[in-house]
Design brief:
about 100 residues, 2 strands
Length: about 100
């Protein structure tokens, strides 16, 4: 669902996401996911570039949060944990299986 509020901006500008700003809002998920990916890049995760591309798609489809939007800590923690679990599941799915070590 497109929850963006379009304003009279050039088309290359991302739309501003409408509220409520909870765990069900794609822009909130994208914002928290971007923070997760940034942390994974800092930690040297070899899959961080692929994660970043996935988050870029979410950001493009969900819009951006209005300037100064505060995400409740409980929402942030819940979304961050779910984003981490999702990326970990994908990494496990695509990890090499077995081997002759």
């Amino acid at each position: 669902m497109n929850r963006c509020r379009r304003t009279r901006k050039p088309s290359h500008q991302p739309c501003v996401a409408a509220g409520p700003y909870n765990a069900g809002n794609g822009a909130v998920v994208a914002h928290v996911a971007r923070a997760y990916v940034t942390e994974q890049q800092r930690l040297g995760n070899p899959n961080a570039q692929a994660m970043s591309k996935a988050v870029a798609g979410l950001e493009a489809s969900s819009g951006v949060l209005p300037e100064g939007t505060v995400i409740a800590q409980a929402v942030w923690d819940d979304v961050y944990a779910r984003v981490g679990e999702t990326f970990a599941a994908v990494e496990r799915q695509w990890a090499p299986k077995g081997g002759d070590a």
